[in-house]
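Sample pair:
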Amino acid sequence: MKTKLFFFITVFSFISMIVGATATWTQQASFPGPGRTYPIGFSIGTKGYIGTGTIGTSTYTDDFWEWDQPTNVWTQRANVPGGPRTEAISFSIGNKGYVALGATSAGGLVQDLWEWDQATNVWSAKANFTGASRLWSVGFSIGTHGYISTGNSGLAWYNDLWEWNQTNNVWTQKANLAGPARMGAVSFAIGTKGYIGTGCVMGSNTFKDFWEWDQTTNIWTQRADLPGTARTFAAGFSIGNKGFIGTGADKTGAPLKDFWKWDQATNTWIQGPDYGGGPIRDGVGFAIGNSGYIGAGSPNANKSNPVSTFWQYADSTCKISPVISSDPGSGTTLCVGQTVYVNASGGITYSWSNGASGANITLHPTTTTVYSVFVTNANGCTGTSSITLIVDTSCTATGVSSIYPDPVQATIFPSPFNQSATLIMTGTGNLEQEMKIFDMLGKEVRNVKFSGQELKLDRGSMMDGIYLYKIISKDQVIAAGKFIIGKL
């Protein structure tokens, strides 16, 4: 039987943001549910969510869909409790998503608040909203607090602001929006500031004003009006210190496709490329990393024939150029169960297709598998890279060289270390051995010959970083691993 020991692969994901690159819209996979108006939408990590809303012109739904940014694949999740509903609000805090208010097909206007746990796919009831029940309101989150404002109950329009505390599950009323009461507005948050703009009062005014609320002072301040057409039922989101508003309906109800970017630092708006899906109203928007997304909505003034299309807005171009290298002499094919160390760099967060996180992962594949990593850098720029690990099913990895009767193990302590560490070997006796050290590009940076079961390892000229090593005896690799110098 053929045997192999350890295999190293380095995946360096170099991600760059091209400053001033042309903003673009790119169509993504449509969500599998029916087209709809007035859905909820939010994001958690690298995943986006769309659910509930009105199918056709009068049928409500409670379905809930998850979109995975790295794979562009939609998956249905547990339905939103409380029955089919429309014109609700949503926001996310950490790895939890929230849906509240709106109208249900069974009970009319509701005041419930539901929490969805991304890890368990389970919904749980939270404290009911303590303001007046309503629909067509807005929701956003800042830190561990969620916010609801504006809306219409059928008899009244609102400009009140309510804060929900995730820690104690308590609602508190905050300062009213300084602008007029309204429904069909758009909202998002940037840092400790919340923003509400546009909207309408049915049969009266359609707005283009834009307001900022400071969480630390509980004060509203008017900012520059949206330069485009006054509108209602638009979509919005924020990326970094920029806010975005687009699509919606003008005062006649006709759908719009223009799209605008607001700079928090300068309080100025500039027009971006028109929404890629054409004129649309009553859709939903959210952001993941440096990209924004708008989905669903209707292309008609009468809100008929709603769509399930989904488009990505990129304010800058992000590209991953992976460089893949293997430990010299290891080859490119693995045995079943062979240990593989995979590393990705170029970002600050890493999400792998097998559910792992972090720049470095250890794998033991038993079949040929493609592993993908989704990387976000300090600028919020994102990208994806993947590698294929080919597994030869005719051989099995033992992890132990046949030249030694007992299992061989190698341990470096401490790791990470700053100046020196100790390599401790077991199962080798006093035979001659060789330690080869490689950087993450696969370049050999040190070669040390020793005998016995301990070796003092000095950093010497090695810089801070992750290093791979293999221990060789009698021309066979008997152990392998990695260690870290300094703080990553």
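Confidence is low (pLDDT under 50) at residues 1-21, 320-331, 398-405.
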